[in-house]
Fold this sequence. Notes:
2 copies of one chain form a homodimer. Chain A is built from 10 helices and no strands.
Amino acid sequence: MKERIRQTSIQLFAEKGFKETSIQDIVNTLQVTKGTFYYYFTSKEQLLMDIHLSYIDSLLEKQKAILEDSEKSYKEKLYEVVYLLIHDIEKEGLSAKVYFREMRNLSEPHLSLIASKRDLFRKQIEEIIQKGMERREFRNDLPVDITALGILGMANWSYFWFDPAGRETDSKVSEIFLKILLEGLAESR
Amino acid sequence: MKERIRQTSIQLFAEKGFKETSIQDIVNTLQVTKGTFYYYFTSKEQLLMDIHLSYIDSLLEKQKAILEDSEKSYKEKLYEVVYLLIHDIEKEGLSAKVYFREMRNLSEPHLSLIASKRDLFRKQIEEIIQKGMERREFRNDLPVDITALGILGMANWSYFWFDPAGRETDSKVSEIFLKILLEGLAESR
Lengths: 189, 189
């Protein structure tokens, strides 16, 4: 039931917005009582926090596996992280929508916890770039933090445009982005 | 007065959100009557549309000047467009916030008009890439549309993190992004 409440709420929050959705709307859609809701969640915000946590924790876990895979080069790890973001936005479209749009409806200490987890995700991209520079896979004349933000932007922006039914798959888009990021757009002569 | 209403509303919409701000809030802040508001705008949505139009029209106008500048290479035009976006997000922070966050509160035909102007901005980035490919400034083995979306993402995402008081200026960030985009991150051996 907890998972059903979560899934229904993700759908309602994505469609109508967090503020515009009441607990009554959620329990009506599920045809259960408010008591059932409060058995699992103390408030609508706690439910929103739960959705945010599931989303970012799942991303962090997958990112950790990529970081720890000693078989892969840092170029490959970079591909994997870009693919992870674009793929996740595709697979978890509604959750991504709630995650990107409704964070401002969290209050403290929830907000800080989610912000610190988002920071960790970014820091771990920095780690890939830093270590890749040390291994001479990446050039080392660019600031690691701004580079990480550029990569994150490229991948995350796909939330606004990526169409699973479109011409290019998530893995193809990731490949194109990695070509740009690694090799650059300039025609070499 | 029209401009004062616009500026005050941008501030209120950015702070509290469009839905959460009433016309009463706007006129209270300005210490004018509702009649004054309705002399200039027919509704709160028309005002939001006015803010959206000013924002995108000003960007399109600046982008047009870049496109038409025959002195510049396509690499330089690409720099100029990336700088335009990052600089504008810095200078027009509150308008950018309203523009990015509140578009969903527009209804038809407003929504379609803004969407078509956003599309035009993207198409004009595609034009820079396409023509730059034809002039052999850019490699021509990448799809123009996905490349444009990657560039747009990198630049637009700065809305979420760019800090005018931070270490790097808007022009420095644009330079770093252009280095990545043109030359790539890979260490050349």
